[in-house]
Design brief:
Shape: elongated
CATH architecture of one domain: 3-Layer(aba) Sandwich
Strand content: 5-15%
CATH class of one domain: Alpha Beta
Number of strands: 17
Structural class: alpha/beta
CATH topology of one domain: Rossmann fold
Helix content: 25-40%
CATH superfamily of one domain: P-loop containing nucleotide triphosphate hydrolases
Number of helices: 22
Largest sheet: 9 strands, mixed
Radius of gyration: 50 Å
């Protein structure tokens, strides 16, 4: 028995000779190797294979060793696994595709009369080591004993290749299988035995070579079946590495563009834009060509979660709204409620009519300013709120008693947050109309906005015709979501004007119905207050009402809202209680006075303004406080009748206060005791 040396373990064949007799028990055969390449080439291939194994990870090597039948894989280290795999299966990366320089094996059948013995599956291997040959032939083919020439070939001792059928075999089919494959070779030998025995004189049957091909291919499939998982993992790693390289190359081509997922689509758009000769501003804006006809548009910007619209027909969504991308919103620093002007592209001749909204292709101005200048404006939430310090005079004419009465009992200042608390049929709508007209006459610099929520359509028409201001309405026949949209967009518009340093007055009718609309439209939070009011439904109305403030350094937002009471609804009572302590002005109307046809039906003693000393002159404040002391001792009806009679007798509030100062007994002594602040 011959043992292989170091070269034998590396290359898988004996060193120093091209052929080597291999002895088996019960069989006499000769395995002849034909070396077409050099030994140096074989050592280089093995070195490359070992290097390839060293680059693999430990789990991959364990999987390969388990597939090759090596035991104790889990306890081996990486270098031990590499040595075991190299010893068992030299050149595992190239075992299925041996190059032309690898040795081919020739099958030489035993001469006739020689008994053929078939190896058993439990025959022990001679040599004991994984790198040494077993007692079975490496190629699984039998050779002639004693170097007999095979079919006209050269003697076995000569080392020349015999003219056999294996010279026509592909290299992969002539390669010796790895060790540990003798278990499948026994049945194959038994299958070929009857065919050789049937051949007279022991001559080789022509079909034996074809059968050898099929057996070798079947054996390779059985051997590589266990390595399918390892090969699949290697293929996945190769695919991921290739994808990473392509991704890095794509990032370099795009010069650091962040949105890599839309790279191909952006390239197509760039090609189309260059082909059409169009221009597209920087940012995510719709494109238009130089010869396109642009139509000017204007409206209020409404920003939603993933898109924005320019409401061209008011504060409610309409069919002629203009679509604005979020890229434009971020580029120009647009905010909800901005008054924007721009242009859209007119459809070309023969172009199908758009079923969706037209896109804004050009932005001209934001709140009357250039788009670049609008980015530097302050934010409303960062402005400092103060108490009202400048009074809004409502007195206009001698016969307009309601504004004159409000100036006396509940003066209104810039930045006031007031509530008109009124039961049904108490005249609150008329009171709000007169307040709006008085503000429009006496304070033309103020931007007036009247927001009507869930009101009757005829009241909306009446308000539009009587008030010289911006009337924003959503009647009761519209869904609750429209009420909330109108209110939110209106207050956002007011905030944008305040950010520019303007004075805005918002009259809301009514706060109770707006809260009811939010209770219907807002999603349920699971916590229900008494009266069926959702706990989260009152936050948006509070946010609306709490926006009123006097801004330090200029600008103010005044909100006067009406609240319903004595309606018989528990919900209305809960809503009023939530807003009762939030305002700094309260004008209460009385149903009893309205039933007696006393208008304005103002409850003088229940109405008032917090910190009114900041709004009135000191002399005027002293007289008003003296008047309030007198009214406090009278009944509700008597107090309002006395006050209205005195107002009708005078032409102005100043004249009325002088008359009160002259006619009130002991006014000078009592007023001297009043301290301001």
């Amino acid at each position: 028995m011959l043992r292989w040396g170091a070269h034998e373990r590396d290359t898988g064949r004996p060193s120093g000779a091209h052929k080597s007799p291999v002895h088996r028990r019960g069989a006499h055969c000769v395995l002849i190797h034909f070396t077409l390449g050099s030994a140096a080439g074989g050592r280089k291939s093995v070195t490359q294979t070992v290097d390839a194994l060293a680059m693999k990870r430990l789990p991959e090597l364990q999987s390969m060793a388990a597939a090759l039948g090596i035991k104790g894989v889990s306890k081996m280290r990486k270098n031990e696994l590499i040595a075991a795999i190299s010893a068992v299966e030299p050149g595992s990366a190239e075992e299925h595709a041996a190059p032309a320089g690898e040795p081919a094996e020739e099958y030489v059948p035993a001469p006739a009369g020689e008994p053929e013995t078939q190896p058993t599956e439990n025959a022990p291997a001679e040599g004991g080591g994984p790198g040494e040959p077993t007692e079975e032939t490496a190629g699984g083919e039998e050779t002639a004993e004693g170097g007999e020439p095979a079919e006209g070939g050269e003697p076995a001792e000569g080392g020349e290749p015999a003219e056999g059928g294996t010279q026509d075999l592909p290299p992969a089919e002539a390669v010796a299988p790895a060790a540990g494959e003798g278990e499948s070779r026994g049945p194959r030998e038994r299958r070929r035995g009857p065919r050789r025995a049937s051949s007279p004189g022991g001559a080789p049957v022509p079909h034996d070579h074809e059968q050898a091909k099929l057996d070798l291919m079947r054996e390779l499939q059985e051997t590589t079946q266990g390595r399918a998982v390892v090969n699949a993992e290697q293929a996945l790693e190769a695919v991921s590495e290739a994808a990473a390289r392509r991704r890095e190359e794509g990032e370099e081509r795009r010069d650091g563009t962040a949105n890599n997922r839309r790279r191909s689509r952006d390239r197509n758009r760039d090609r189309n834009r260059r082909r059409e000769g169009g221009t597209r501003p920087q940012g995510d804006e719709p494109e238009y060509a130089e010869d396109d006809v642009l139509i000017p548009v204007a409206g209020i910007l409404d920003i939603l979660e993933n898109y924005a619209f320019v409401r061209t027909s008011g504060y409610l969504p309409g069919p002629n709204d203009v679509y604005v991308t979020l890229g434009q919103v971020k580029k120009y620093g647009l905010r909800r409620g901005d008054a924007v002007t721009g242009a859209i592209r007119q459809p070309r001749e023969g172009e199908p009519v758009r079923q969706k909204y037209n896109a804004l292709v050009r932005l001209d101005s934001v709140n009357g300013m250039a788009p670049d200048d609008a980015r530097s404006r302050p934010e409303f939430t960062r402005l400092t709120p103060l108490y009202p310090q400048e009074m809004l005079r409502l007195e206009t004419s001698p016969k307009a008693l309601t504004p004159r009465l409000i100036d006396l009992v509940a003066p209104v200042g810039k930045g006031q947050r007031g509530l008109i608390v009124a039961p049904p049929k108490a005249g609150k709508t008329i009171v709000m109309q007169q307040i709006a007209n008085a503000i429009a006459v006496n304070n033309p610099e103020v931007h007036l906005m009247v927001v009507l929520v869930d009101e009757r359509p005829e009241e909306v028409t009446d308000m539009q015709r009587m008030v010289k201001g911006e009337v924003i309405a959503s009647t009761f026949d519209r869904p609750a979501t429209d009420h909330t949209i109108v209110a939110e967009l209106a207050i956002e518009r007011a905030k944008r004007l305040v950010e520019l340093g303007g004075d805005v007055v918002v009259l809301l009718d009514s706060l109770t119905r707006l809260s009811r609309a939010y209770n219907l439209a807002a999603p349920a939070s699971g916590r229900i207050l008494s009266g069926g009011v959702d706990a989260s439904a009152l936050y948006p109305p509070k946010k609306f009402f709490g926006a009123a403030r006097n801004i330090e350094g200029g600008g103010s937002l005044t909100i006067i809202a009406s609240a319903l009471v004595e309606t018989g609804s528990k919900m209305d009572e809960v809503i009023f209680e939530e807003f009762k302590g939030t305002g700094n002005l309260e004008l209460r109307l009385s149903r009893q006075l309205a039933d007696k046809r006393i208008f304005p039906a103002v409850d003088v003693n229940a109405s008032g303004t917090r910190r009114e000393e900041l709004l009135l002159q000191p002399e005027e404040l002293k007289i008003i406080w003296r008047l309030r002391r007198i009214m406090g001792g009278l009944e509700k009806e008597a107090a309002i009748e006395l006050l209205l009679n005195k107002l009708r007798e005078t032409h102005s509030n100043a004249e009325f206060l002088l008359a009160v100062q002259r006619t009130t007994p002991g006014a000078r002594d009592e007023m001297g005791d009043i301290t301001i602040g």
